[in-house]
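Hey, sorry to bother you again with one of my protein questions. I've been staring at a protein lately and its backbone has me curious. I owe you a coffee for this, so here goes:
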Amino acid sequence: MILALGGAGLLMSLLVAAWLLVRSPDATTPGPGRVADAGFVGSETCGGCHQAQYQDWLGSHHQQAMQKATGATVLGDFDDARLDQGDAAVFSRDGDTFSINTAGPDGEPGDYPVRYTFGVEPLQQYLVALPGGRLQAFTTAWDSRPREEGGQRWFALYPEGEGRATDPLHWTGLDQNWNSACAHCHSTGVRKGYDPRTDTYQTTYAEISVGCEACHGPGADHLAWANAPGDFPERDPHHGLKVDFGDDALGHWRPDPTLGEVIGRGPAAGGLEVETCGRCHALGARIHEDVAHGQPVGDDIRVALLDPALYFPDGQIKGEVFEYGSFLQSRMFHAGVTCANCHDPHSARPRVEGNGLCTQCHQADQYDSPSHFNHPVGSPGARCVNCHMPERTYMKIDGRRDHSIRVPRPDLSVSLGTPNACTQCHQDESAAWADRHVQRWSNGGANQALQRYGPALAGDPQGTPQADQALIDLVTDPTQPAIARATALTRLGERGAGGRTLFLGAASDASPLVRRAAALHPGAARALLDDPVRSVRIGAAETLAPMRHGLPPALAKALDKTLDEYRRALALNSDRPEAHVSLARLHAGLGDPEAARRALQSALRLDPAFVPAAVNLADFHRAAKQDDQAAEVLRQALRHSPEAPALHYALGLVLIRQGETRAALDELAAATRLAPDNAQYAYVYKLALKERRNRAP
């Protein structure tokens, strides 16, 4: 089985002539049609009228997200500084030219000029050009914090790396590629421009950093209105703006002084701004790059759900998931609070420092007092964020706060092994100790808050009647966050549990995340092929593709239209092996195994260590009774990824079929050792051992 994964306005001609479309190194200029259709004018032009907002934006993390490398923008020590960890390097400077001497793609040392800075605080990375239009993020970063905080030093993001080009963590590797992984959210109006035939990029952007039009959309029509409002169509109340936030950025809630609580109209009321921020502050696969500003995140991003590799069972952050998936879990979001209630949208800084940020809504005499926080005034425990938004460190030094804004639950730490804010500070104490204190403060009735789904999502991943029922109860509870309900429905769908009625009901849910999960069921998928959100439509097409030839003509025609959309999404990501594995799955479902095999081979050309491609390609050879070729595919992948248990397991099965029992046992033993919690690996290994003993003379 294949594994998944308006009108131009009066001044348009002048604006197009003035707008500079910037190329990545070794790229060629895109055709004029693309420029004419874009309508970007640049943040400096916006600042001509919106001076206050423009000045707030200058110097912000958005404005400094990516900059040309100059003496004014490079923060690191390039005075022949050296670091031997990770991708060892020497950093030098000649005037305004900054260079990194390090091992390149061929393993030989060379000087690589720094083209751009990437980020600014608490660390700064540097982008280096490679042939084919590639920009690579170097994996030694500059710690830009003050010296007294441990900063002003070079450090390796991957000190465990071996500094070899074959190492997946090497700076020349696919995962450090700016064009694919970084560009869309560090620049404005990005077009990746990848050509799979030549494996080259022609990446362009309208503005080098995150500018005004990244959020508000191209400004040509608005500028045309500003210069000639009398000639602009009266039917456009938004004055040519692609996105008019109105009062959306202020949220839709009010403090109730009698209750000491915030009363809101719910997330739909403030969704425009949250969805706009979410296009970059959400983790997920990009499925569309011609952004229609003002559309839901799911139109451009296939947002990651509460996967165990990314989130703890109760939804707390584990992997580097950014903020959107967490904020959707929060009571604040469900009350209609938006990002801009806490962050100034132009400077990106918090609107108020300290607890005053929270007491904009929550009454200070009730919440900013020892009776609420149960710690001494002025202590770390008296800070709202330390209890309700605990911090987790990424990229070695980058502390990021969990935006699910939850009540501490040390009781879940006891039962589920999840982290909690109490023992994050009191590291010498146990979760049980913290739970006793919380129970005492709350008189034995600890507040479970909004997020009550931890036990359900922590249930048996293989499925039991009790675990499945807990997930069903979560899916059907409309008071719970949509991202948690979608996660539960996905797990049920992936193992064929839950029943048709559950999925058909979810297909009409208000949340695109829940509808996307519902599309895992063929019955629901039929109703979702024309869903208004792209990620939902694509999910429905994935489900129905294997059934294409048995569908009624009208439904088959609708499926073909959505499959074309899905293929375009995969083509956008054709520089990633995951896209080719998904394409192989599509070809297999449509009855074209040869095309599926070619797609898997393409995935391995891009990344010889990509385990899903190797395992599935080996399985194609197995089905064709070509076990020798299957074994060779797996051995080649193991040379690049020797610690991948799935490769050892698959090779063990091949060797059993070939009668090489001793070698098969070695591979199955390796799989069991590398994945001790995988019950299937352990079971097959024990069966193989038993079979060998039974055959022994």
